[in-house]
Amino acid sequence: MKNKILIVAAHPDDEVLGAGGTILKHAQNGDEVNILILGDGESSREAGADIAKREKQCQEVAEKLGAKNVYLEKFPDNAFDSVSLLKITKKVETIINQLKPDTIYTHHAHDLNIDHRLTFQAVLTACRPQPGFFVKKILAFEILSSTEWQVKDGGDIFCPNEYNNIEDFIEKKIEASQVYKDELRDYPHPRSIEGVKILAQYRGLEAGLNFAEAFRIVRLIKDDKNL
């Protein structure tokens, strides 16, 4: 039985930075991958905001990654805290109930970016454990220039405990990342092409692999059919 995957990300480009190689791998394995982007990723910019362009880029990236569907919401960029958590949660809940995924990937709970943090809270709220609930696994990914910029304080630090070998997909991940060319920066900025590759190498080193994406298991439910 193939898996049904949902990626819930705050902004267009988070999906490929956080889990691009893993999405490619799921798609190659025949899993159904859907992507939900909650924010427009543009409206906080004083000049030159182009929401339509960013949405078009997101659609192109989803196609490159092999996702079945991409759902685009328009919560204000870097201002999710100006919207009630209930409103964000209801959007997430609607898609979750529509798709009934067994696995969800989303942001780390303690990223520097407020939109990332509220996305995580919305996902966890929408996935309140109930009898017969279909989501069995929730994983948090890391986003360059947000996760590593968090306060380095005990339990808030991103500490991965699941590693996915993406050696066969790193070049396609980088290719997809380049679609968001306006979001990339020059090295040594972490959100550079070099930064993307270095992080994948570093996570690979932690797991005896050449390239990996790392995740934090937030919840894992195993029933009699999934031991």
Q: How does the SSE layout of this entry go?
A:
Blueprint: E1 4-9, H1 14-28, E2 32-39, H2 51-65, E3 69-75, H3 85-99, E4 103-107, H4 114-126, E5 137-141, E6 162-165, H5 170-177, H6 193-207, E7 212-220
Parallel strand pairs: 1-2, 1-4, 2-3, 4-5
Antiparallel strand pairs: 5-7, 6-7
Helix pairs in contact: 1-5, 2-5, 3-4
Task: Characterise this structure.
The protein is α/β, with parallel strands linked by helices and 227 residues long. Helix content is 36%, strand content 19%. The protein has a single domain (4-220), classed as LmbE-like (Rossmann fold). It contains six helices and seven strands; from the N terminus they run E-H-E-H-E-H-E-H-E-E-H-H-E. The protein has a seven-stranded mixed sheet with strand order 3-2-1-4-5-7-6, sandwiched between helices. The longest helix has 15 residues, at 14-28. The protein is globular, with a radius of gyration of 16 Å. The two termini are 15 Å apart. The mean pLDDT is 95.
Summarize the structure.
With 227 residues, this protein is α/β, with parallel strands linked by helices. 36% of the residues lie in helices and 19% in strands.
